[in-house]
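ARCHIVE CARD
CATEGORY: sequence design from structure
SOURCE FIELD: tokenized fold
FIELD CONTENT:
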């Protein structure tokens, strides 16, 4: 082969290699938002939960039912939470569940009795292998109501259900390699659905990152009835029902949809991945309305809203009187004294 031709071919191959390597050299890896990081201080209530058992890491599944009593206008006035902790791994345990408590008692079937301290449910004991801890907590509605995922507004002949999980957070956008981001979206959603440990992701950026803001909202599955009219809907904003009467609905935070992933650009894939990671982080907060002492343990929370009557304010009751009224007694005594004085005067004149 001609030397000049060989040299030309070598130079062309080198230029092609440099052209292919340039994007790779320009790309850099950036971490995606963690699905484990809360987006606001609450929920969970009261700073969450802790475990301080010595040298033992218990595996705990938490299941909670939050019952919300609402007035005819939809305003919550009484809130209770029933929490069941399914505890495994043998050993001593000491769990603290933060909450704005008014009272706490054990539920039927609990293997122990909870303690009540200022702002905390206390569980303390020994787990032989499996332990079921059940508590009925009466919460301070003034402090717990603002943290609920749903607000109900009743006006005239309509009831409006408002999703209140929304929060605005800082994030970023850029061009990126779409393939690994699409794989991460599928893996993260699968882990949430199956209750597996949540993966954290990275993105291979091919352009400078730019800061942006995102509004993150957890979808709420609402089912039940208003005045006998059935409701079944997923709400991310507001849902107005043209009905009035007794409200009885259940509300469950839902896993967000991954959406269609075919043909996404790198920027679109990055937006989809960051949005899903942030939404899962927000979902975990509402699933942990009462904290789980196991930070990696599974948890579910169901919210039940029911119309109810506010308890009547206590009426002051006067102590029962026995015998004659004191005013009557004074009058009788005064009459007797006056009569005695008159008798003495007549006797003296006589």
């Amino acid at each position: 082969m001609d030397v000049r031709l060989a040299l030309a071919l070598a130079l062309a191959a080198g230029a092609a290699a440099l052209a292919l390597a340039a994007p790779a050299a320009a790309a850099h890896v950036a971490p995606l938002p963690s699905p484990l990081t809360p987006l606001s201080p609450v929920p969970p209530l009261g700073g969450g939960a802790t475990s301080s058992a010595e040298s033992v890491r218990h595996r705990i599944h938490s299941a909670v039912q939050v019952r919300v009593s609402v007035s005819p206008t939809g305003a919550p006035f009484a809130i209770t939470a029933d929490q069941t902790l399914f505890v495994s791994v043998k050993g001593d345990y000491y769990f603290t569940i933060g909450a704005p408590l008014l009272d706490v008692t054990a539920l039927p079937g609990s293997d122990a009795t909870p303690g009540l301290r200022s702002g905390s449910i206390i569980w303390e004991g020994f787990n032989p292998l499996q332990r079921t801890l059940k508590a009925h907590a009466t919460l301070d509605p003034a402090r717990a109501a603002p943290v609920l995922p749903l607000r109900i507004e009743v006006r005239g002949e309509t009831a409006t259900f408002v999703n209140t999980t929304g929060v605005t957070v800082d994030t970023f956008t850029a061009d990126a390699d779409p393939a690994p981001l699409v794989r991460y979206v599928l893996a993260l959603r699968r882990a949430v659905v199956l209750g597996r440990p949540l993966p954290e992701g990275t993105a291979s950026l091919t352009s400078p990152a730019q800061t942006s803001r995102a509004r993150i909202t957890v979808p709420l599955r609402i089912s039940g009835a208003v005045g006998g009219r059935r409701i079944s809907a997923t709400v991310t904003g507001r849902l107005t029902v043209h009905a009035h009467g007794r409200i009885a609905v259940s509300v469950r935070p839902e896993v967000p949809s991954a959406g269609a992933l075919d043909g996404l650009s790198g920027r679109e894939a990055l937006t989809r991945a960051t949005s899903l990671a942030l939404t899962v982080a927000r979902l975990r907060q509402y699933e942990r309305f009462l904290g789980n002492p196991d930070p990696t343990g599974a948890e579910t929370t169901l919210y039940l809203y029911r119309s109810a009557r506010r308890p009547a304010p206590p009426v002051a009751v006067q102590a029962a009187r026995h015998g004659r009224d004191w005013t009557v007694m004074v009058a009788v005594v005064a009459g007797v004294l006056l009569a005695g004085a008159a008798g003495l005067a007549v006797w003296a004149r006589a």
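CARD ANNOTATION: The chain has one domain: 31-307. The two ends are 169 Å apart (CA to CA).
SHELF: design records, drawer C
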